[in-house]
Design brief:
Layout (H helix, E strand, L loop, with lengths): L11 H13 L1 H20 L4 H12 L10 H4 L7 H7 L2 H10 L6 H9 L21 H16 L10 H10 L7 H12 L7
Helix pairs in contact: 1-2, 2-3, 2-8, 2-10, 3-7, 3-8, 6-7, 8-9
Length: 199
């Protein structure tokens, strides 16, 4: 892919969707901002072209938009979800993609596709479509790494925050099954180069 300048996520449509997400659950919005930052630095290191860089940033910023449609009893549950609740929670990827696809965001169709597939796993065990390997869009695989790191390391109601070292250990154990090894290697190279994942 040709390297180019990264375009910021901007515009009334994007801002409106992010505001709606913040009003529903500020923690989700803050998580999306962190995932956007991590995804952007991975994308920069992989020399994405300008359009791909824009789509990546927008999709990362809105990847959990579909949680707006998740019931309060599940979204704000102070303990781990049961199987039925997880089934409902997993609808957020497809729901968020649909919301973006019918919005007026530039490159909406491409952004929606990346959001839909950010929970697919390399071994085909992810959702919503069970895609595997290279059938999962690269930008979705990038977001999956950034999302996994933040989800593992962030503090939750039912468990404390996981250390940086432990988060990486867990992610390495998922390399090749859940996460793309090449993207994970880039992420670790960024960290080892002195990038502060916590700012």
């Amino acid at each position: 892919m040709r390297k180019g300048k990264q375009q910021p996520v901007a515009g009334f449509a994007e801002t409106s969707l992010m505001l709606a997400m913040e009003r529903r659950d500020r923690n989700t919005k803050v998580h999306c901002e962190r995932v956007k930052r991590l995804s952007t630095i991975i994308g920069t290191s992989m020399n994405l072209g300008s359009t791909d860089a824009y789509v990546l940033q927008a999709a990362a910023a809105l990847h959990d938009l579909g949680k707006i449609k998740i019931p309060d009893s599940i979204l704000f549950k102070p303990s781990q979800l049961d199987q039925s609740e997880w089934t409902t929670m997993r609808t957020h990827a497809a729901s968020g993609a649909e919301m973006v696809e019918f919005s007026k965001i530039e490159h909406a169709e491409s952004i929606a596709k990346i959001i839909r597939h950010h929970h697919e796993h390399l071994d085909g065990s992810g959702y919503p479509d069970g895609l595997d390997g290279r059938n999962i869009p690269l930008l979705s695989r990038i977001i999956a790494v950034a999302d996994s790191y933040d989800a593992i390391s962030m503090h939750r109601h039912y468990s404390g925050a996981t250390s940086h070292a432990r988060a990486l250990e867990i992610m390495r154990s998922e390399s090749g099954t859940k996460l793309d090894p090449e993207v994970l290697d880039v992420f670790e190279d960024v960290i080892n180069s002195g990038f502060n994942v916590h700012t």
